[in-house]
Each structure stands twice: as structure tokens, then as C-alpha cells.
Design goal:
The chain has helices spanning 17-20, 31-38, 55-68, 80-83, 94-109, 125-131, 137-154, 167-176, 187-210, 236-259, 264-272, 281-289, 345-357, 388-406, 449-460, and strands at 10-14, 73-77, 84-86, 91-92, 113-119, 160-165, 219-225, 229-231, 294-298, 303-306, 325-326, 334-335, 340-341, 363-367, 372-373, 411-417, 431-432, 436-438, 445-447. It has 463 residues and is an alpha/beta fold. The structure holds 6-O-phosphono-beta-D-glucopyranose.
């Protein structure tokens, strides 16, 4: 075998509560449930989060399918809006508890290690309406209360917790680039939300450690989407621009999660531009003292950056683009359906960056993947989707990851997005990512060619 992975390597894929479960029996709405209710047109083919992949009802059969394609682990998230009855006191909803409890037991029975995320974009709508969601520090306390409840209920069985999934996407989607409800363009709020989410994560980690839940190998981390920034050229201005994009989009969460401190350069720029968040010494100390045990890294695409040609027009307000411009690199390899560049080598660069600049903290790829529209046309006469492009995609990324591991990076697993085609935040079912296809009409699930290929890789711990 050419590419052999470390012992006990996690092989699997990730989904999230809101994207897989369906809203069945859920008493509260998340911001996405609310958004769909008020603006169904914002979602591809007007398909909302009601049924999704029916995981709430079919989790037993679904988990068995995951097992059948070689998984030894998977990630999903608990929905705050399903588990909790009263957000201020974190009392539990009995049916929500029953569901997550049974799901965890079933996964363990099948020999699947669950990685559990506490927040995957799905802020309770009530907390947005009442407090402005992540703009509020009170919400960070409520999040810690909810997190503590999850640890109390499930940490006897869950050994891998993550506080947030891709918090930077919340900041970008909700407050800067208008792709999550309520689609604001407000950098001041964006930065306060970024600070408050970092704080919320640290408060949850504190609850985990103070409560003594970090026993018997149990650990807590965060899932970050890293978009390595590559400068157009070696010209100083391009390099500086790429460095700022890296600090803003990656290190604002990465440094804080791992090192307990915001990057100094970011704090300097934001202070100079009068954009710095409100903080207290006590909060900064709390973040410094409550860093993650491990990282989940979602990698989809790099960021190509050049220096701005002109002065940024600040009349409509501050934006991070004051310090860089996106660069459309000629000849870049694209996934045309999602509009994201495919660049496997970035996974190696991430591995080395973590090794050299983040204390070689344990980490794993918590998402990587390729969303493709119209996969039905690849279904063969035996009913299997021949997604050879996905096999190539995974193989190439694994080769680069392997090189990073060979050079000493402390990576303990590889999860794809996603096990079974699932609902997406506004693309709904446009692009399919799964190893297993979903027929939306009848909920029939069939293993794709990539699923059979992955089974071999996982069972051989390499290829
Ligand atoms: C990540 C998220 O951003 O990428 C997932 O954690 C998401 O929730 C996935 O579904 C793919 O992105 P999209 O927008 O194509 O669904």
C-alpha cells in the first residue's frame, strides 16, 4: 500500500442536525427555520428544512449504512432548538433528549465514534429576536449553559466534542456577505459577533473543564473552516494583502481557539480603524485560559489574494476588503457547481501550518468535499451513481494529507462532507455531496461508487 494512515485513524463523514434530521417534533425554530418560513424563495427549489434526509426517523438505518461503507466515526450536531426547552435555564425537551440519547447509543452499538458539535449555524431564532444572537454576551452565557447540559447528559459516552462549526461562516454570512439570514452588511456587528462566538466557545470549554467532563480521554475542540491565503505574486503588497486575509478569515478564530489570544496585528488594525470589539480583561483572561484540546478543520477551497489596485471606499462603512482584493487566478481548477476552486495541496499546507505554528495540536479533517449538481445523470443501469470525480477528489486530498502526516503533522482523521446527500443552507438539495445518494421523492438511499471506494480505503487504513 502506498499511502498508509496512522493507527486508529478516524474515517467517516460529517453532517449536522439541521441538515439531516428534519424538523419533526422540534419545538423551537432556528434562524434557518425562521428564514425559510418568511422567505422560502431564498432556497433552491423552495425546499426547506422540514424533512431533509429524515435522520430523525431513519437514524438507525442510516447509521447502519454508514457502517456498511467502512466508517468508524461520524460527526453530527445537537440542535439547541431540539434539545432545550427553555433557553434561559437550559431545561431539556424530553423528546429531544430521547432522540439524541438513542442516536448516540445506536452509533456506539455499531462501533461508530460520534463527534458532536454544539452549534452548526443554527442559533435559536428567539435568541436572535430578543438579544441579537451572537451580538449579545448574554447569549454566550446561555450557550455555555446549554453546552454544560449536553456534557451532563452525554459525556459519559461522547469523547469528542466541538463547540462551533465554522463560526467564521456565521460572521461572513450573517453580517458581511449576505448569504445567511438576516443578510446584513455591518462590520461592527460582525466583529462583535466574532469576538462573542470566540468567548462563547471558551465559556463552553470552561464548563467542560470545571465540570470535570475531561476525563477518560474526553476532549473538546472547535471546527474551523480554513481557507489558506495565497498571494498573487511575491510582491510585498500582494503578500501583505494575503497576510491580512489570513489573519481576518482564519486566524481570528484559529489563534484564539488554540493560543487563547487574538492575533496582535488584527487587534492593531481594528483599533486603528476604530472597529475593535468590546472586551473586558476578565473575558480575555477566560479565553486565554480555556483553549481547545483539538481542532476539526474543514477544508474546501483556498483564497487567492492580491493587493488592491485602488483605495477602498469607506463611505459605506468598513469592510475587510479595505486591505485586500480577491484574485481570480487564471487556469484555476474549479468545481463549477459550487463555484469553489479545487486545490488539494492546501491540505498539506494546513498540516504544516498546524505543526509549525500551532504547537502541532491534534487535529483532523472534519469536512472536505465536492458538491455536484445533477448527479442522477451518472446513475448506471444497476442504480449506482458513478461519481468518479468524487473518488479523484478524495484521493488527491488524501495524498496531500498523507504527505503532511509523514512530515509529522498530528492529524488523526479524515471526514468528508457528507455521508448521505443532505440539505444545505440555501442551496437546499441543489449540490449533492454524499457517499450515499438521496431520492427526495421517496427517501430512498443508495450507495454511490465513491462510497464503495471509501469503504476499501477505510478498511485498509489507506490505499
Ligand atoms: C460547510 C458547512 O460550510 O460546508 C456545511 O459546515 C455545508 O454545513 C458544507 O453544508 C457545504 O457547503 P454548502 O454551502 O454547499 O452546503
Amino acid at each position: 500500500m502506498k499511502y498508509e494512515f496512522p493507527k486508529n485513524f478516524l474515517w467517516g463523514a460529517a453532517t449536522s442536525g439541521p441538515q439531516a434530521e428534519g424538523t419533526f417534533n422540534k419545538k423551537h425554530r432556528s434562524v434557518f427555520d425562521y428564514w425559510y418560513d418568511v422567505e422560502p424563495d431564498a432556497f433552491f427549489d423552495k425546499i426547506g428544512p422540514a424533512v431533509t434526509s429524515n435522520f430523525y426517523n431513519s437514524y438507525k438505518e442510516d447509521l447502519a449504512m454508514l457502517k456498511s461503507i467502512g466508517f468508524n466515526s461520524f460527526r453530527t450536531s445537537i440542535q439547541w432548538t431540539r434539545l432545550i426547552d427553555d433557553f434561559e435555564t437550559a431545561t431539556i425537551d424530553e423528546d429531544g433528549f430521547r432522540f439524541y440519547n438513542d442516536l448516540i447509543n445506536e452509533a456506539l452499538k455499531l462501533g461508530l465514534t460520534p463527534v458532536i458539535t454544539l452549534s452548526h449555524f443554527d442559533l435559536p431564532y428567539e435568541l436572535y429576536e430578543k438579544y441579537g444572537g451572537w451580538e449579545s454576551k448574554h447569549v454566550s452565557d446561555l450557550f455555555a449553559l446549554y453546552a454544560k447540559k449536553c456534557f451532563e447528559l452525554f459525556s459519559d459516552r461522547i469523547k469528542n466534542w466541538t463547540t462551533f462549526n465554522e463560526p467564521m461562516v456565521v460572521v461572513e454570512g450573517q453580517y458581511l456577505y449576505q448569504f445567511h439570514y438576516p443578510k446584513l452588511v455591518d462590520a461592527k456587528k460582525a466583529l462583535q459577533a466574532a469576538y462573542n462566538i470566540n468567548l462563547s466557545s471558551a465559556k463552553a470549554i470552561k464548563a467542560f473543564k470545571d465540570g470535570g467532563f475531561d476525563k477518560n480521554g474526553a476532549r473538546i475542540g472547535i471546527v474551523l473552516n480554513l481557507t489558506p491565503s495565497y498571494a498573487r505574486s511575491e510582491d510585498k503588497k500582494d503578500v501583505q494583502a494575503a497576510n491580512f486575509a489570513d489573519i481576518f478569515f482564519n486566524r481570528m478564530f484559529l489563534d484564539t481557539a488554540v493560543k487563547g489570544k487574538f492575533p496582535e496585528e488584527l487587534v492593531e488594525v481594528l483599533s486603528r480603524d476604530k472597529m475593535l470589539w468590546e472586551s473586558t480583561d476578565e473575558e480575555l483572561k477566560l479565553m486565554d485560559e480555556n483553549t481547545v484540546d483539538f481542532l476539526g478543520i474543514n477544508y474546501y477551497q483556498p483564497r487567492r489574494i492580491k493587493a488592491r489596485d485602488d483605495e477602498f471606499d469607506e463611505s459605506k462603512g468598513w469592510m475587510p476588503e479595505k486591505y485586500f482584493d480577491n484574485y481570480i487566478m487564471p487556469g484555476r481548477r474549479m468545481n463549477p457547481y459550487r463555484g469553489w476552486e479545487i486545490y488539494p495541496k492546501a491540505i498539506y499546507d494546513i498540516a504544516i501550518n498546524i505543526k509549525e505554528n500551532y504547537n502541532n495540536i491534534p487535529w483532523y479533517i472534519s469536512e472536505n468535499g465536492m458538491g455536484v449538481e445533477g448527479e442522477e445523470k451518472f446513475r448506471n443501469k444497476d442504480g449506482m451513481i458513478e461519481d468518479k470525480y468524487r473518488i479523484d477528489f478524495v484521493r488527491e486530498h488524501l495524498e496531500c494529507l498523507h504527505k503532511g502526516i509523514e512530515e509529522g503533522s498530528n492529524c488523526f482523521g479524515y471526514h468528508m462532507w457528507t455521508p448521505i446527500d443532505c440539505w444545505s443552507w440555501s442551496n437546499a438539495y441543489k449540490n449533492r455531496y454524499g457517499f450515499i445518494s438521496l431520492n427526495l421523492e421517496n427517501q430512498e438511499k443508495t450507495i454511490k461508487e465513491s462510497g464503495y471506494w471509501f469503504k476499501e480505503v477505510a478498511e485498509n487504513n489507506g490505499f
